[in-house]
Amino acid sequence: MKHSTFLHKVSIALLFFAASPALAVCNPRTEICNPIQANTFSDLVVALARAITAIGIPLVAIFLVWAGFLFVTSRGNEEQLKRAKTTFFWTIIGGAVVIGAWALSIAVVNFARNLGGNGNNTNNPFENSDSSLENNASPPATTPPPLPDLPPPI
């Protein structure tokens, strides 16, 4: 029995190490496919953050409605009012955690993108790639459009 367990572990290890990224076509009948389809670390973080946000935001909305229902049905009962306040408080905390997870994922992705270089990454969507703004040059001045003529007061 001990020998068959060892062979089982070795065969599983060989399957994982023998898988080549060049043969990334997935046949769901014969293997487990990657449902996220992330090829890079930043793709993985963004996919996880989107999944957490897609699940978390509707849950926060549902629990906010539930907390409001608890407030309405408490009718001055201190115990039920305390339960409603606690539900509302933890729902707000949960919403902040979901939004904070999204913000943290953006920070991690931007940090990871700029980690390997000197910060001049052209794939950063938050940077302005306008060549006129390089070397701290000021942007070209534009004049605002003239104000329309106002009708005379009555």
What would you note in describing this structure?
There is one protein chain. It is flat, with a radius of gyration of 28 Å. It has 154 residues and is mainly α. It has helices at residues 2-18, 41-74, 78-115. The chain contains three helices and no strands. The protein has a domain at 41-115. Helix 2 runs antiparallel to helix 3. The longest helix is centred in the middle third of the chain and has 38 residues, at 78-115.
Number of strands: 0
Mean pLDDT: 75
Low-confidence stretches: 13-23, 124-129
Percentage of helical residues? 55-70%
* Share of β-strand residues: under 5%
The first-to-last residue Cα distance is 100 Å
Q: What is the chain-wise order of helices and strands?
A: HHH
Outline, from the CA principal axes? flat
Largest sheet, in brief, is: none
Please tell me how large the radius of gyration is. 28 Å
The SS-based structural class is mainly alpha
Continuous helix count: 3
